[in-house]
Amino acid sequence: MDFTHFHSRACRLALAAFAVVAVAFGGPASGLAHEDEAMEAMPGMSGGATAFGHPGTADQVSRDVVITMGDMSFSPSAVRVKLGETIRFVIRNPSAIDHEFTLGDAATQAAHRQEMAEAAEKGMPMHHHHGGNAVMVAAGQTQALIWHFDVAGSVDYDCNVPGHFESGMLGIVTVAP
Ligand SMILES: [Cu+2]
Questions:
Q1: Distance from the alpha carbon of residue 54 to the mean position of ligand 1, in angstroms
Q2: Which of 28-42, 71-85, 116-130, 153-167 has the least mean pLDDT?
Q3: Measuring CA to CA, which of 49, 71, 105, 147 is 20 to 30 A from 131?
Q4: CA of 102 to the centre of ligand 1 (A)
Q5: Dihedral (CA of 74, 93, 96, 160) sign
Q6: What angle, rounded to 10 degrees, do the helices at 3-24 and 106-121 form?
């Protein structure tokens, strides 16, 4: 692990902690009175364009990127794509634990993490019914997620099963011309 990436991971964990605190105290990161409104306002959950691209279709795919899930890790944990590429993430989970893969910016990840935690608390299945930017991958299974990257910058991929991101299950896509 190079230092740059380590630094990035540490910063993101710190930011995630801040986001949780901000939401808990109704700070500027939340700013929404009702849970329903928060759900609708979640970036990346509408199925359309987001600040980090939009879902792609099979006929648009530029190339495949294979991501392998470990006990609490993604391999690789950093991916570079070219601006305008449509990537089919082939997400393998040979581990013994169910995981998930959410593509998104920090706000999307924080919102999704909260949603997953609430589902787990209620004993509900942690499935994904909106957006196309997240997929559950059960132990021993492989899933695909197609995403079109038309915004330069970086996009995170996190596992938001409660406790997994905090244990280091995160990665980053760098999108550059
Ligand atoms: Cu996980």
A1: 23
A2: 28-42
A3: 71
A4: 10
A5: positive
A6: 60
Residue 131 confidence (pLDDT) above 60:
yes
Which tokens belong to 90?
């082939």
Q: Give the pair of three-digit tokens for residue 3.
A: 């230092």
Give the pLDDT score at 13. Answer: 60
For residue 100, how far is its CA from the centre of ligand 1 (angstroms)? Answer: 6
- Cα–Cα distance, 39 to 145 (Å, whole number): 22
| CA atoms of 18 and 23, how far apart (whole Å) | 9
Domain ranges for the chain:
3-176
How far, in Å, is the centroid of ligand 1 from the Cα of 98? Answer: 6
CA atoms within 13 A on the CB side of 30: 16
SS3 content of the chain, % helix, strand, coil (to 5): 25, 30, 40
177 CA to middle of ligand 1, Å? 31
Q: How far is the CA of 162 from the centre of ligand 1 (A)?
A: 8
Ligand 1 centroid–CA 50 distance in Å is 24
Contact 83, 149 (CB under 8 A): yes
Task: Tell me, in angstroms, the distance from the centre of ligand 1 to residue 122's CA.
Answer: 19
What dotted CATH number matches 3-176? 2.60.40.420
Q: How far is the CA of 145 from the centre of ligand 1 (A)?
A: 16
